[in-house]
Amino acid sequence: AQSVSQHNHHVILSEAASLELGCNYSYGGTVNLFWYVQYPGQHLQLLLKYFSGDPLVKGIKGFEAEFIKSKFSFNLRKPSVQWSDTAEYFCAVNAGTSGTYKYIFGTGTRLKVLA
Amino acid sequence: EPEVTQTPSHQVTQMGQEVILRCVPISNHLYFYWYRQILGQKVEFLVSFYNNEISEKSEIFDDQFSVERPDGSNFTLKIRSTKLEDSAMYFCASMRVNSISPLHFGNGTRLTVT
């Protein structure tokens, strides 16, 4: 069965610090990978996605993620965080095979950026 | 940009009562989902719906739950005989075509069972 692990549950950073949030998945086949962000009181919004091609994908608001197939990882990065990045971040996986369109989410990482 | 809309934003109900959570997916989307998020926990898949029938469901989605698309625009989640542990944020999501389309989420309905 597919699963997604996010190792950091709570991260506190100062503004301008660099961010890396870990995400590992377990699935042997083709996967589609996503990062969603949930700002306080709001719904989940797509931050970036990977389907194929260049393993380094860029998303909105300066975020990027790197797909490393050999490590089953899709870590999220941002070189310099801002106070407005305070949110919860969820990694998600879709198996990418026909017949199942179920997205599996990680447990989330709550990021707090101190001004 | 079109949005997924959910009503109500907050629902309080007594244990044992039935609730219906409503969602209007994005109009040209074909796949519909319900997820829930218990406070402080992960986003959990409940059910997916395509072509007027359930395509997948999790073990959470037992006989207490049902979904319906009654009129071609609304997508509802019914919880019969609510329990305290059903208290959670319930998110509706829709997807346009296939697995490479991202999920679009609504703002959620916070269900509180007392």
What can you tell me about this protein's structure?
The complex is a heterodimer of chains A (115) and B (114). Chain A is an all-beta fold and 115 residues long. Chain A is built from no helices and twelve strands. In chain A, strands 2, 5, 6, 10, 11 and 12 form a six-stranded mixed β-sheet that branches. In chain A, strands 3-9-8-7 form a four-stranded antiparallel β-sheet, with no helix packed on it. Chain A has a two-stranded antiparallel sheet with strand order 1-4. The radius of gyration of chain A is 14 Å and the shape is globular. The mean pLDDT of chain A is 90. In chain B, the strands form two sheets. In chain B, strands 2, 4, 5, 6, 9, 10 and 11 form a seven-stranded mixed β-sheet that branches. Chain B has a four-stranded antiparallel β-sheet with strand order 1-3-8-7, with no helix packed on it. Chain B has 114 residues and is mostly beta strands. Chain B has no helices and eleven strands. In chain B, strand 5 and strand 6 (53-57) form a beta hairpin. The termini of chain B are far apart. In chain B, 0% of the residues lie in helices and 50% in strands. At the A-B interface, strand 5, strand 6, strand 10 and strand 11 of A face strand 4, strand 5, strand 9 and strand 10 of B.
Low-confidence stretches of chain B: none
The SSE order of chain A reads: EEEEEEEEEEEE
Give the total of beta strands of chain B.
Answer: 11
Characterize the overall form of chain A: globular
Helices, strands, pairings?
The complex is a heterodimer of chains A (115) and B (114).
Chain A: E1 3-5, E2 10-14, E3 19-21, E4 24-26, E5 32-38, E6 44-50, E7 56-58, E8 64-68, E9 73-78, E10 87-94, E11 103-105, E12 109-114
Parallel strand pairs in A: 2-12
Antiparallel strand pairs in A: 1-4, 3-9, 5-6, 5-10, 7-8, 8-9, 10-11, 10-12
Chain B: E1 5-7, E2 10-13, E3 19-24, E4 31-37, E5 43-50, E6 53-57, E7 65-68, E8 75-79, E9 88-95, E10 104-105, E11 109-113
